[in-house]
Amino acid sequence: EPTVRTELMEQIPPIAIFLQESRPKFPTAFFEYLMPIVVRYLTDVNNQVRKAGQEALLILLEQDLVAQSDIENKVCPILLDLSAPDSDDEYKVEAVNIICKMASMLSRTTVEHMLLPRFCELCSDGKLFQVRKICAANFGDICNAVGQEATERLLIPKFFELCSDSVWGMRKACAECFMAVSYTTSPEVRRSKLSPLFISLISDTCRWVSNSLFANPSSAGLYIREDGTLSIRPSTQDVNSKSCQPSNNLTLIASSTSAA
């Protein structure tokens, strides 16, 4: 029964912690018996079981309970299979999400050598916009995980692609993580490559893309009015509207920002 397998997955992390604390008595129990179950359930036919397995895996990684050999020989290979071009759509979306979440918990070498090539492929996935959206939303975290050299050599070109995506929500996700991406690059790359890209996004025909590059009104007290001007008064408008209307107020935004 799927409910039994789901419940089992929820018990794996506390059992693993107990085994870790009692390691002299159970030196190999987790690696021999429990870890194979976690890996197997990542491909379970039931989505709730898979979700429970993914959550268990993240907890185990966060607690540093998974051996490096298991990460490289068991976990990463199954995620690469699930995120392959010919993989089932639902499995692929889940695999991309877990890859992005676990990147910050793994060593830089593991991420760069095993996961980064597939992440770059997924950024250009022409079949599923959901896959590209996950990549865009987590782009800053991936950059931080692999460091400056890999970011500038492999990720910045993919970031340019995502910032030019035909889906406005993709460009909005890029705008929201723009600062995080820039932190990982050199001043020269920021000046020569990211600055023109920033101007391109702030000039986007979708105002929800361009507005995303401004400060969060809840923390900064700033917001973009409907006429495009920057205000320091508390917003009475819902700037999180789901619709996307072209903005013709970019000059006003720029001038107001300069004045501030």
Automatic annotation (TrEMBL):
<dbReference type="InterPro" id="IPR016024">
    <property type="entry name" value="ARM-type_fold"/>
</dbReference>
<dbReference type="GO" id="GO:0019888">
    <property type="term" value="F:protein phosphatase regulator activity"/>
</dbReference>
<dbReference type="Pfam" id="PF02985">
    <property type="entry name" value="HEAT"/>
</dbReference>
<feature type="repeat" description="HEAT">
    <location>
        <begin position="115"/>
        <end position="154"/>
    </location>
</feature>
<protein>
    <submittedName>
        <fullName>PP4R1 phosphatase</fullName>
    </submittedName>
</protein>
<dbReference type="GO" id="GO:0005737">
    <property type="term" value="C:cytoplasm"/>
</dbReference>
<dbReference type="InterPro" id="IPR051023">
    <property type="entry name" value="PP2A_Regulatory_Subunit_A"/>
</dbReference>
<dbReference type="InterPro" id="IPR000357">
    <property type="entry name" value="HEAT"/>
</dbReference>
<keyword id="KW-0677">Repeat</keyword>
<dbReference type="InterPro" id="IPR011989">
    <property type="entry name" value="ARM-like"/>
</dbReference>
<dbReference type="InterPro" id="IPR021133">
    <property type="entry name" value="HEAT_type_2"/>
</dbReference>
